[in-house]
Each structure stands twice: as C-alpha cells, then as structure tokens.
Design brief:
about 425 residues; single chain; elongated; Beta-Lactamase; 7 strands; alpha+beta; 16 helices; seven-stranded antiparallel β-sheet; Hypothetical protein af1432
Length: about 425
C-alpha cells in the first residue's frame, strides 16, 4: 500500500500521463485503473454527466475479473440515472459532495440516498466500502462522478477508505475531470467530421463509426496480446488507433451525392468512383504530425483491402492515386494488397467494419441475424479477412456484442 508521499508523487506523474491520452473511452479506463491503484480499491466505476443525468460509462472489478478465463474481459452495460438525491452517485453530483461510506449495507435509513443491491445480487459480489467523488473542471463544473469500491489492506481484506486520502482523491478528480473534458472536445471535433460525412452519406453514422472504432481496439488488443507486445506499446497504440478507426470512411465527403445517395445498385463506373474514397481519406492525413495522422491515413487507405488480394485500392500512391511502380496488374491497374502486405490496422478495421455493416439496419437492408453474420466471418477466414484476426474476433465476441449496446443507432423521429 502506498504511503501519503508516494501517492502525492504518483498524482503528479499521473497528471502528466493523462495529458497524452486523447480518446475518451481509453482515458476513462486509465483514470479508473489509476484511481483504484492509488487508493487500493477492488472495484470502481465512472459516471459521465449528460445534461441532468449521469451515464454509467466504465466499470472495473478485480474480484469478478479473476473469476473469468484468462484473456476474457468483464462485460458491463451502460445506463443513465438522474442527478438527484436518490442514488449515491446522483447525490454526489447534485450536491457537489464527497461521500465516504464504510458499509453501504448499514446506511442510516434517514439519509435521502440508498444503495441499489441488485448488482450484488446478480453477480454474487459483495459491496462494502464506497468512496464517491464529484469530478469538477477548473470552472468548478461537475462533469462526472468517480466511485471507488471496497478498499483493501495489504492482506486483501475489505476496509474503509481512509478519510486522510480524501484531499488527494479530490485533486486526482480535478486532474481527471480536465483530461476528460479535453478528450470530450477531441471526440466532439472528430464526430463533427463524421456528421459531415453523414450529411453526405446516411449510411456513415456516428454510432456506426464509434462501434467500428471500439471493435477495432478490442481486435488490436487481442492480437497484440497474442503476439506478446508490451502493455506500454498496446496502450500507446490503442489511443491513436481508436480515433483513426472512427474516421475510416471520412473520404466519402469527396464523393458525389449522385453516387453516395443513389438508391439502387451502382454501375461499374460509379463503383470505381466510390472506391476512390479510400484515397481521398488518406490524402487528408498526408504529412503526418502524430500517430493519429499516420494511423488515420493507413486505415482510410487500407480498410477495403482483402486478405486474398482482391480488395481495393491496392498498391497506390495516395498523393496521386496512381499504381506504385512494379505493382501494376495486366490491365495497368494497381494490384490489390495481399496478406500481410495490408497494414495491420487496415486488416483490423476491415473486419470491424464488415461485422458492423452486416449487424446493423440500413436504408437498403435489415440487420442480419447474428448466426448468419458469424457464419460469413468464419467463411471469409483467409479470403476477405486475416485468419489470425478472425480468431481474435471470436475470442472477444462477448465484449464486441456489449459494445453495440453502448452505441445504438439514432432513433428515427
């Protein structure tokens, strides 16, 4: 267990580390993991403010994680609750007040808030001590709530959270809140780019882009662990990959409405024009200044390549769209990239994109039955998709299913 000085030193280091995390989902994961480490909490959750409600955005639980097979991840469902005095998190946000509760099963019945025992009942977990902190930005606006569950001593026994830690937790929450707000601004900017594409192509929606990005991160993580990449490299790569995957189809803004919004099947000539969105997207990120720029160019250019070499646009120079010397086919066109010629991130997003497209309702089709979708992915192993990534997909299928519920499609008015 860290002493007071060690916690303060780690707090400073943490503030510097999270300034480099741009993606909101991955930032929340890092914030919660660090908070639990600093204050020796077995579990925890983060709620993000959305108007007058709190959205349950991430959850971690070491006890429940240990019950799962190696490589499996906990599944949690996102939900919202009102900012009022009825729940512990709602009370903290509503009153801008930290709550340090030694035992939630012994709450005074005169208190306005209560503990919901349903999760414990369903999971077999036993919640005891809870420390719940409002997360405020530098303008003192509450942007969310951090909740730490079941403090532990060095022997793994559940104890109360130390009141002397509360000032450090509050400083931690301020660092976290400002980092979250920056990540929200980054996500808003990226989603405005998606909204531009959505105005042009109704199929290219924010929820679709976010699902593809989240699936891609899961596939990358599974692949990286299988190939024994370091956790440091995995963490660094996931951040930029997720944002890049969101923008996989941003090049469609350069395609004519006559083609994008055509209700019927495209002609061969129109389809060739549509294929150019991969090159247009890559051109937006030429002369990269960051991993995000580099990964975005890779994803945009390569997410329609196929493992068997029958994809597009193939070996082209994204600046000109012309075939690279020595990579022309018999007709003088660019030969499709094959196998590991396709960059890993392109192979990952290709699988994530197809899975979501088949699983979702579109103007021109209903969502396919999951059994049929999974059958197609299995059948395309070694054809359209990297066989190694197909294995990773099925290994993470339970998590991938849960992601869909976090990014539902827009409801029609």
């Amino acid at each position: 267990m860290l002493n007071h000085t060690q916690k303060l030193n780690r707090l400073v280091e943490f503030g510097l580390e999270i300034s480099n995390v741009a993606d909101l989902d991955l930032l929340l994961e890092k914030v919660l993991r660090e908070a639990r480490y600093l204050f020796k909490a077995d579990a925890g959750s983060i709620y993000i403010r959305e108007g007058e409600r709190l959205r349950f955005s991430i959850s971690q639980n070491d006890t429940l994680q240990k019950r799962l097979p190696t490589g499996k991840k906990l599944i949690y469902t996102s939900f919202t609750l009102p900012i009022d005095n009825n729940s512990i998190a709602g009370y903290v946000a509503n009153n801008d007040q930290t709550l340090n509760i030694p035992d939630v099963y012994k709450l005074n019945k005169t208190l306005p808030f209560s503990f919901n025992k349903e999760f414990d009942r369903l999971s077999g977990y036993h919640t005891q001590s809870i420390l719940t902190i409002p997360m405020k930005n530098t303008r003192h606006q509450i942007i969310g709530v951090l909740q730490l569950i079941n403090a532990q001593n060095d022997h793994g026994e559940i104890i109360s959270f130390d009141p002397e830690d509360e000032p450090i937790v509050k400083h931690f929450a301020i660092y976290a809140a400002n980092a979250i707000e920056r990540a929200q601004m980054t996500r808003d900017t990226i989603e405005r780019m998606i909204s531009m594409a959505e105005l042009r192509d109704p199929k290219e929606t924010g929820p679709h882009a976010n699902r593809v990005a989240a699936y891609s991160v899961e596939l990358y993580e599974a692949y990286a662990q299988k190939h024994h990449l370091s956790q440091e490299e995995i963490d660094r790569t996931r951040d930029a990959l997720r944002m890049a995957a969101v923008l996989h189809d941003v090049g469609k803004v350069a395609i004519s409405d006559m083609i994008l919004k055509k209700p019927g099947k495209l002609t061969n000539e129109e389809y060739e024009i549509m294929k150019q969105h991969t090159i247009h997207g890559a051109r937006l990120f030429l002369n990269p200044r960051s991993d995000f720029d580099e990964f975005s160019a890779i994803v945009a250019l390569n997410h329609h390549e196929r493992w068997d070499g029958k994809g597009y646009p193939g070996h082209v120079d994204p600046k000109t769209g012309e075939p690279l010397p020595g990579y022309e086919d018999e007709r003088g066109r660019a030969r499709g990239k094959k196998g590991e010629e396709i960059p890993l991130f392109g192979r990952i997003v290709a699988l994530a994109d197809v899975y979501d497209a088949l699983s979702s309702n579109r103007v021109y089709k209903d969502a396919w039955d999951e059994k049929k979708v999974l059958q197609v992915i299995e059948e395309e192993r070694g054809k359209q998709f990297d066989p190694d990534l197909v294995d990773c997909f099925f290994n993470r299928l339970d998590v991938i299913r849960s992601i869909a519920s976090r990014y539902p499609d827009h409801k029609k008015s």
